[in-house]
UniProtKB/TrEMBL annotation:
It comes from Pseudoalteromonas carrageenovora IAM 12662. This is Energy transducer TonB.
Length: 243
């Protein structure tokens, strides 16, 4: 009976222990599953958070870019408006510039005819070329204006030039070969090849006037200076400029 009781008692004790162990195992398994689920949920949460942060960052970047594009568009619109205003004034500008150029050409021609008559054919030819350009539809208004200004620049340069050339003067019905010297526009003189006679252009009477012998040396020096045969220095000459 003791043995039976002991066996029975061990069975009675073993069964609850087994149940406890089984329950513990089930709890452990459940805990593992729960932890796995928690880990999965946590991982998904982290992914969602990262994705959210990425979307937020992209949104901020997109906002900055959109603001940048908006400023560019605003600047382009302002430029377009400015161009439109400029285009609108082009016709008015041409209407003012074209008559101005014709007046400048007429004034240049009048000045050349009133000036000392050096290089007269070349200078008047330049004026005629400007008139031809003004009548040409293939030349832009800006190019026409540039060439008119260039002609004025050339005329201005004559004022400081010292030049020498050769030509022929008609004196008392005879043609005399002469050297011609020019000091800017202030003195235009000529001397015969034999150095015995000299003349100065009188722009008031539009004719050559014979100089006295006291000017022969000065005229000779002017011509030598113009030909770089002598250094520039003061000379005594009568002066007749354009009126």
């Amino acid at each position: 009976m003791v043995g039976a009781f002991a066996f029975a008692s061990s069975n009675v004790i073993a069964d609850p222990l087994n149940d406890v162990q089984k329950a513990g195992q089930q709890i452990q398994k459940a805990a593992v599953k729960s932890q796995t689920k928690i880990d999965n949920v946590y991982g998904q949460t982290q992914e969602l958070i990262a994705e959210y942060r990425s979307v937020v960052d992209e949104t901020e970047l997109m906002k900055v870019y959109n603001d940048h594009v908006a400023r560019l568009v605003a600047d382009q619109n302002a430029s377009i408006e400015s161009f439109d205003r400029q285009i609108a004034t082009i016709d008015n500008t041409k209407q003012n510039v074209v008559p101005l150029m014709y007046r400048m050409i007429d004034t240049l021609e009048q000045f050349i005819k009133a000036d000392v008559p050096f290089n007269l054919e070349t200078r008047l030819g330049r004026v005629e070329k400007l008139r031809d350009i003004m009548a040409s539809a293939s030349v832009t208004t800006s190019e026409k204006f540039r060439q008119v200004l260039e002609a004025y620049t050339v005329e201005t340069a004559y004022s400081s030039a010292v030049t020498a050339s050769q030509g022929t003067l008609e004196v008392d019905g005879k043609n005399i070969n002469v050297d011609i010297g020019r000091l800017g526009r202030i003195s235009y003189v000529a001397q015969s090849f034999d150095l015995k006679h000299a003349w100065v252009w009188d722009n008031n009477t539009k004719e050559w006037k014979k100089l006295g012998d006291e000017y022969l040396k000065s005229v000779k020096e002017v011509i030598r200076m113009a030909r770089k045969q002598a250094t520039l220095e003061l000379v005594k000459l009568p002066i007749f400029g354009a009126e």
